[in-house]
């Protein structure tokens, strides 16, 4: 539980950092107060986080000219230096095979082309 709470707080600090905070209108569920409160955070981690849900398609891949695209074909986040997204969020739709295997393949391909 301590590791999961630490991970949520670390991810939250990255999302709320000056480099990223202005890019989000809102976040789903979490707030600064919730993340700061140990009791509420533990309850959220225990009751809301679920390893069985595999999100896909939330960070559209496409050219910078597409206002809905978040990353380019190499996973580079538009308008941000040295940040890539290489996970199932860049998939255009839910794959018909396990998302973890497809994500591994995507990561291997992008890592190979980034050299």
UniProtKB/TrEMBL annotation:
Pfam families: GMC_oxred_C. InterPro entries: FAD/NAD-bd_sf, GMC_OxRdtase, GMC_OxRtase_C. Residues 2-107 form the Glucose-methanol-choline oxidoreductase C-terminal domain. Gene3D superfamilies: 3.30.410.40, FAD/NAD(P)-binding domain (3.50.50.60). Belongs to the GMC oxidoreductase family. This is Glucose-methanol-choline oxidoreductase C-terminal domain-containing protein. The lineage of its organism: Bacteria, Bacillati, Actinomycetota, Actinomycetes, Kitasatosporales.
């Amino acid at each position: 539980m301590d590791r999961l709470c630490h991970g949520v707080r670390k991810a939250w600090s990255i999302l709320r950092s000056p480099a990223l905070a202005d890019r989000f209108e809102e976040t789903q569920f979490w707030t600064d107060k919730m993340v700061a409160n140990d009791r509420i955070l533990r309850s959220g981690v225990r009751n809301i986080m679920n390893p069985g849900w595999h999100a896909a398609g939330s960070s559209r891949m496409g050219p910078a000219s597409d206002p809905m695209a978040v990353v380019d074909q190499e996973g580079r986040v538009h308008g941000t230096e040295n940040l890539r997204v290489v996970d199932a969020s860049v998939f255009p739709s839910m794959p018909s095979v396990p998302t973890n295997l497809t994500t591994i393949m995507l990561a291997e391909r992008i890592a190979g082309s980034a050299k």
